[in-house]
Amino acid sequence: MTARTRRSLLGRDIGFIPQEPMSALNPSLTIGHQICHHLARIGLRTAKVRRDRAVELFAEVGLDRPQALLDNYPHQLSGGCCSGS
């Protein structure tokens, strides 16, 4: 499989669940930046649509204050935390 073909499947047909919480997210980028980057790769075109979808996804899994969570950096959350700081 070519790299291009593999990239086209990621996020749509192939999922990734990181097992190491301390290395799953880039500490220098906000959580929102990172998730919205992924949502752009799978076809959500505008920043507003991506951000709205990220908020929906966080709310769907029971995270408190999903809008605020997007503006946090990974180090601002505690392990198992359900709310932004």
UniProtKB/TrEMBL annotation:
Family note: Belongs to the ABC transporter superfamily.
Gene3D superfamilies per UniProt: P-loop containing nucleotide triphosphate hydrolases
Compartments (UniProt record): Membrane
Name used for this protein in its record: Uncharacterized protein
InterPro entries: ABC_Ni/Peptide_Import, P-loop_NTPase
Main subcellular location of this protein, as a coarse class: membrane
Keyword Membrane attached: yes
Keyword entries, A-Z: Cell inner membrane, Cell membrane, Membrane, Translocase, Transport
